[in-house]
Amino acid sequence: MTGHRTRLLVAGVGPLPPERPDRLHAPGLRTWGIARELARAGHPVRLLVAAFGEDPPLVRRYDLAPGDAAAFPDGLRRELPAEGGAAGGLGALIKAEAREWGADAAIGSTDLMNAGLAAAGLDLPIWMDFNGDPMAERQ
Fold it and tell me: Using one digit for the tens of pLDDT, what is the confidence trace for 44-57?
């Protein structure tokens, strides 16, 4: 790939397949699919993964190098507490991570991380992915 590589922040809910959990859920499969394909396409990706069903969620951070598509390097995992309630705490965390990473754009997946992305108030292009119907899934 030649030219500018867009630095992307991807925020979703796990667990993710490379984390080798006992059980996978659709949000983790979708989050990993988005991040993996963006990295495969040649973009550096900072991946923020909220723990499924935790409030406030503990967020794991992984940096995927361009072309990286298989597994996470051991040294790039960090656990970050999202303090101050789900949306507000996630918003502050996402904003700080986007700034530190120098993100050119952000992608969210799931209602939880999309709410955090909206609360972050980023001055970046944002794409919010919804898998299914959030209202039906909350029932």
Answer: 999 999 887 777 77
Please, which residues have CB within 8 angstroms of residue 22's CB and are 6 or more apart in sequence?
none
Phi, psi of 128 (to 5 degrees): -115, 120
Check if the beta carbon of residue 66 is closer than 8 Å to that of residue 44: yes
Length of the chain in terms of residues written: 139
The token pair at 124 is 């970046």
* Three-state SS sequence of the chain: CCCCCCCEEEEEECCCHHHCCCCCCHHHHHHHHHHHHHHHCCCCEEEEEECCCCCCCEEEEEEECCCCCCCCCHHHCEEEECCCCHHHHHHHHHHHHHHHHCCCEEEEECHHHHHHHHHHCCCCCEEEECCCCHHHHHC
Q: Does the pTM of the predicted model rise above 0.90?
A: no
Give residue-wise pLDDT tens across range 77-96.
566 666 666 667 889 899 99
CA distances from 108 to 4, 13, 49 (A): 22, 9, 10
Instruction: Give the whole-angstrom CA distance, residue 86 versus residue 51.
Output: 11
Sequence-distant (≥ 6) Cβ neighbours of residue 135 within 8 angstroms: none
